[in-house]
Design goal:
2 domains, 14-stranded mixed beta sheet, alpha+beta, Aminopeptidase
């Protein structure tokens, strides 16, 4: 079948892409074989606002002549390509076309002047691996690059229970007055070795995070330390169409680590959306500490989403 390519350059196409991701998620039995719609939101409203992401390629959709979306490529970073597809249309021919398109427009130029492209692929997706190998890609061998994706069924499995560390309080994020503390906690959690003077402030939070379509302050959950500052946090994105939640991000300030606070905020999030009718959650991690937490609160089982890398000289 011949498909039509279209770049996401207008709002109507973007909203249709979100609908496509929701449909695919349901068709895949709520397994993270494609992006949840909230990951596309996070890319559009936050990732693209970051300086080193502003020049990345525009997402591309493939449609039938009747206007049904069957596949898409999203960047989520310069030189990265994430292939999404409708399970009824997945074929070697379609993947060939998508990989060739990614090679044309999604690569980045390295400091050496070469082109470099990473196409992400699940370890059990042999069809895509075959195509990528034929195009000269090789699986990345740094395990810290691998994204381990975990899901938990909130209907058939009882919720895990982890006591909150003494002296800490788990609750929703407060109003504007608490955003500086929440932003600083994020900086400290994800840049523990960076000098304080590199911190760029907290405007990104209300501008990039709280403006997203699925953002809910009651699902922006924090652990408050005895001194009143944010010690740990998670933002839970709940899609009431798929009835699934997605945790992004999860973090703990270094001085407050090893107290189980990340587990506590995640479990509180699961309790809240289960009461709303949620049936599942997804959570992904790269590092050993993160994956230990996510295995405990979500599942020991995971899908491994790995980078396949190609670097070549410009002709």
């Amino acid at each position: 079948m011949c498909f039509i390519k279209k770049k996401i350059t207008h709002d109507d196409v973007y909203w249709r892409a979100r609908t496509f991701l929701r449909q695919v998620y349901i068709l895949n039995d709520c397994k993270p074989l494609s992006w949840p719609a909230m990951r596309l939101d996070y890319w559009r409203y936050h990732v693209t606002a970051i300086d080193n992401h502003k020049k990345e390629a525009a997402p591309i959709l493939w449609e039938t002549t009747e206007g049904e979306i069957v596949a898409a490529i999203f960047p989520e970073g310069p030189g990265h390509a994430h292939l999404q597809y409708h399970p009824d249309h997945y074929s070697a021919e379609l993947v060939e076309e998508m990989v060739a398109e990614a090679e044309t427009g999604f690569y980045r130029i390295t400091d050496k002047g070469t082109k470099r492209l990473i196409v992400w692929c699940h370890d059990d997706d042999t069809l895509r691996q075959t195509v990528l190998t034929r195009h000269g890609f090789a699986r990345g061998d740094n395990w810290e690059w691998d994204e381990r994706q975990r899901a938990r069924n909130l209907v058939d499995q009882p919720l895990p229970e982890f006591p909150t560390a003494q002296g800490y309080t788990i609750r929703s994020l407060g109003g504007m007055e608490e955003i500086p503390s929440r932003s600083w906690a994020s900086w400290r959690a994800f840049h523990p070795d960076a000098p304080d003077e590199d911190y760029e402030g907290w405007d990104w939070y209300p501008n990039n995070i709280q403006t997203q379509p699925m953002y809910r302050r009651d699902l922006d959950i924090v652990a408050i330390a005895p001194d009143g500052e944010v010690a740990a946090f998670t933002t839970l994105w709940y899609d009431d169409v798929t009835r699934a939640g997605y945790f992004e991000p999860v973090g703990t300030v270094p001085e407050h680590q090893r107290k189980g606070l990340a587990k506590s905020v995640i479990c509180e999030g699961m309790r809240r959306i289960k009461a709303m009718g949620a049936v599942s959650i997804n959570i992904s991690g790269h590092s050993i500490p993160a994956n230990k937490v996510y295995a405990a609160v979500a599942s020991e089982d995971c899908l491994v989403y790995a980078p396949w890398i190609k670097e070549w000289a410009d002709e």
